[in-house]
Every structure is written in structure tokens, then in C-alpha cells.
């Protein structure tokens, strides 16, 4: 099946209607928040102080609200047979979204609390739907997942990890939204190829709600995703992946990992990097992959542009890397061996590129200086 055929199948009339409603709602709500920021700015603004702050003026960081509203409106317009699974996703995503939004507003919700909230969303999704991961195509692990308690706990941890990974890559205009938009499309294309029309439609609806936010966030950075938005999107991506694997036995779990390879690798490597530095895993720094791309390449190639333009170019460039993962996953999704090889290959490629940027070489040495600013 060609890419064009897959996209044509996903874009059937009922799905497209709901997706358009979600996109327009998300876009319109984002625009309203920007136009009315003087009324709610005291609560919603992301100010410019902080090690990971790259914007030059206070900006609303509650972009998750329009996306959630877009999903709700799309649910209202969705085909009847799709309302229940979409509603389960919406309700189950509320703990992740609520705790993230609370951090956006109060700046007082800890990393551990937000992680637990995303895991709670995973538990709630299982309780409402009875779906949890029963296989990952790894010898021994699949046997353990036959036990419901282990399966549910594993699923909650996996969902929490993916949700937090989207939060970690949310560093520049358009980065997290481009990456997640492409990931939803990628999941939808695989779902369509295995004749799971409902899941393909859900993926398109979620992609459209993220796309509505994108056009207010990029390129001018008028509104930010915030923790509420990144955690809700991350949970939604993880839950779509769980459903894709559990509803379709021909889809390898590693294919889902391929689509999320950038955020998953970023969060794992960030934890490792901070352990090397003897820093707390949740401690912010400017050594993320996207930060280095901007400092090493974008700042040099586009030195004549403003800081905001450089941020936006970096976000689109790094977010757009997900296209490669989507194409690969849609080719190898039926083969566990090929999917695993491709996932490992893309992960190793990320690490090699990272080491090239941090050390100007393709190998790691004992003298690696994670603080380098060269």
C-alpha cells in the first residue's frame, strides 16, 4: 500500500469532519488566549527567566487548553462508534493534563508529582477500557505480561515515560507539536494498513488538534504548549500506541517505538547524561539534542536572523526528523526483527549525532565534558 492510498483511506468524510472541527477549535482557542493574554497573563504567562528559556518576552504557556478543547469538540462530531474510545482517551488524559496545567499556572508542581499523574492516566485508561500491554515481543518479558498486575503496572510506566519524553523535547517553537503531529499521522497510517479504521480516525483527530495549535505557536511563538499540553499529547501518543499493539497482533511493538524514537531516546539519554554529571534526573539544562542543534548549526548557518527565527527553524528541523521514523515504521511494522533493528539503528544514530555536536567527534571518551559550550 502506498502512502497516498493510506492517506486517502484515513481521510474519509466522517473522520475529516471531526478532524476539521478539532483543528478549527484548537486554532481558534489558541488565538483567543493570545488576544486576551492581558486578562489572564498573571496566571498563564511563561516568563523569560530560567536555564531553558529561549523566548524574549512573556508568553502564555497554556496551549494545552485549546488542544484538549479541540479533542472534546471533535469527540462530539465523531462517528458514533468512535465516541467511546475517544472519550476514554479524553477522560483518562485528565490527570496528566490537570497536573501539567497546575504546574503551568502555579509553578509549584514537582516533577515526581507530574510523573505520577501521567502514570495515573495510564491506570485510568486501563480501568476504563481493559486494555494494557500484553506483549512487547521480548522473550521472557511477554511471559511476565501475562499476569494482569504486571501488565498494568508496566503499561502505566511506559505511558508515563512517553508522556514525560514529549515534555522534555518541548524546547522550541513547533518542535513538540511537529513531532507529535507526525507521530499521530504515522500511527494512523499503520492503523489504516491493518484495517483498524477507528484507531486511524482517532489518530487523525488528535493530529488535527495539535496542528491547530501549531499555527499559533510557530513561527512567532505567540503561545506555548506548556506542561499541560505536552503531558496530554504524550499520554495520547502512548495510549494510541498501546491500542495499536493490543488491537492488531500483526503490528510489532518496536514499530510503535520507532515512531517515538526521538522523544524516547532523548529522555533515556538525558537521564544518563545527568547521572554522569551527578545531577538530578529532573534538573533542567541546555544540553538537549535540540539545544545543541541550535547552538552548533542553526546559530552559525542563520547568524543574520533573530533569536526567535532561529528558535523556530530549530523546532521545525528537529521536529521534522520524525518523518524518517514514520516512513521506516510504516515499512517494517509487521516484522519484529526489522522493527527492532531499525529502532536500535535510529537510537544509535541519535547518540552519534549528539556526541558529534558535544565533542566534535563520532566516539565517546572518558574525558567527555557535558558542560562544553564550544
Automatic annotation (TrEMBL):
It is a multi-pass membrane protein. InterPro entries: Glycosyl_transferase_4. Mg(2+) binds at residues 167, 227. The chain crosses the membrane at residues 18-35, 62-79, 85-102, 114-131, 143-163, 175-192, 198-216, 228-245, 251-272, 313-332, 338-357. One of its GO terms (cellular component) is plasma membrane. Its cofactor is Mg(2+). Keywords: Cell membrane, Magnesium, Membrane, Metal-binding, Transferase, Transmembrane, Transmembrane helix. One of its GO terms (biological process) is cell wall organization. It is found in: Cell membrane. CDD domains: GT_MraY_like. GO terms for molecular function: metal ion binding; phosphotransferase activity, for other substituted phosphate groups. PANTHER family: PHOSPHO-N-ACETYLMURAMOYL-PENTAPEPTIDE-TRANSFERASE (PTHR22926), UNDECAPRENYL-PHOSPHATE ALPHA-N-ACETYLGLUCOSAMINYL 1-PHOSPHATE TRANSFERASE (PTHR22926:SF3). This is Glycosyl transferase. It comes from Malikia granosa.
